[in-house]
Each structure stands twice: as structure tokens, then as C-alpha cells.
Amino acid sequence: MNYFENCTTRQEVKTQYYKLAMQFHPDRATEDLKEKHTEIMKDIINQYEKAIKKNYSDTSKAPNYDHKNDLSFVDIINKIFEIYPNAVIEITGLFLWILQDEKTREFKDQLKNFMKYSKNKKQWYFTPLPYKRVKQTVSMTEIRNHYGSKIYKNEQPEPDKITA
Do 95 and 43 lie in a common domain? Predict the structure, then answer.
């Protein structure tokens, strides 16, 4: 029996595990069912460990968010391209990142007025909503795999610089 086949998010897996543990834990069983419940719990634990590692697009962590119609995202993207026309912007989940290159440092003073800098990822980021920081370090690759990502580049060429 697959106890977690209908789960679509990590939260559903955890909730299902809790319900099953309450139902089948050997300490909650009568004496005549302890051995049977022990075997069932072993099976549940094995399936739980596999189910929790699945790559869910977990809607409880990243709700379907309309970046294109969120004025704060649109405004921030326009601001970034005003300051740094050649910027490459990546949106992952509820975060907007400026992909780092050798020129990004030149715009540091302007970017820090409306963005934050991640020392771990060495990238500037923006999120329109408050978020809870995670104590563990998660790589950008893991974030991309979990939430997906979309890259934006400025479609207008950088204006030619006039030299005297």
C-alpha cells in the first residue's frame, strides 16, 4: 500500500505521516496488534522518507504569484534596467535576483536603496513580501530546481556613450 500517493506537497506528506503515526504507532496499539503495527510503521517510515524527498512544486511555500502584474516587481525591474541596462534578472519563487557580473559592483550604491545583498550567494535580491529566513544555506541551483526560474534581459540596447 502506498500511503503517500495522493500527496501533492511536502506539507500534505507531513500531515499524512502524522495521521498515520497516530493511527498505527505500536505504543497506541493493543497488545495483540503491536507486532502488526510495528511492521506497518516501518513501511510508513520508509515511504515517508522517499515521499518527503520528492521535488514538489510546493504551493504552500511558493504560491502562484503573478510577477508580471505585480507593480512592485515591474517597478523594480524597470529601476534596475534604468540603473544598469545590461543587467540580467532572474525570478525564482518570490525573489528577484540580479545575476552577478564584473560590472554589478559599479551600481552597488544605487542598488542598495531598494534591494538587499546576499553575502552567501553574492547577488542582489528583492522580494515584495516579508519572508522567514532559513538557517540552512541553500544554493541557487537548489532554489531553481525547487521553484523554477525565469530570466529577463533588457530588450533596449545601452545608449552609446558620447566621447569628446
Answer: no
